[in-house]
Fold this sequence. Notes:
The chain has 138 residues and is of the alpha+beta class. 18% of the residues lie in helices and 45% in strands. The protein has one domain. The protein has a seven-stranded antiparallel sheet with strand order 2-1-7-6-5-4-3. The protein is globular and about 35 Å long. Keywords: Signal.
Amino acid sequence: MMKKFARTFLFAGLCGLGLMAGPALGESGETLAMLDRLDPGNWMLRMRGSGGGEERMCIGSGRDLVQLRHRDLECEQVVVVDRPSEVTVQYTCPGNGYGRTTVRRETDGLIQIDSQGTRNGLPFAFAAEGRRLGTCPR
């Protein structure tokens, strides 16, 4: 009887963990809808903290903001938080590190980004404000 209870409890716990982990990218048309609402184009990221600085980039979709330190790499992504004004995505890039990025939308042209992880064996962490500047230069 105790073994049956333990198996049932373990199964229920694992199912609950699966629900808490969130859907992987691409499983649902609604997943990361907030990022899809951000205006594509030329964006400026103003880094906060010591070192500061600005970074300009042309994005085709708000999803381009998830892997800023691992651009153009094939990485496995897991959605951790998916709310109308905030998303968090954790990703792993085999042989190239990993990251966890939170994007909070203030408007379709103003966001806050917090990202941390490792790249080439070294840690990174940054917080930035992103503002859309207009269309991408040609």
